[in-house]
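Human: Cast an eye over this sequence-structure pair and say how the chain folds.
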Amino acid sequence: MSEFERSRRMPAPADQVFRQASDVGKLDLWMPRDLHVRAEEPPAVTVHEDETGQDERALLRAEREQLRMEWGTRDVDRYAGWLQVAGIDDASSDVTVHLSFFDEGHTPPAEAVEHALDESLERLAEQVRQAA
């Protein structure tokens, strides 16, 4: 199993950041550019990966009270992840994203995952700034 985690300070209160991060209709704005999430009957979603052209059945849960999202594949244990927002003060918060890959044969290179996490958090910060 391979695990990756990244955190970033966001320029907004935790509840505002979580609203932006957990909006299923806006996930494509901050997630890795080659992944596209299509909502189904909650918590079911389909994730389309541009690189392979394949759709993968997944689950996505958002717990507003905990400011936490969790996701993972439904049919096979390929990957899972979570996003946690923590308030710092009235004007800022920290976001942590964690990914676990269970099948070493399908784990992307560490540098690629770390780069994708950093870019995703940067895009989320920009989305939060624009929504403010």
User: Anything to note?
Assistant: Helices lie at 14-22, 27-30, 110-131.
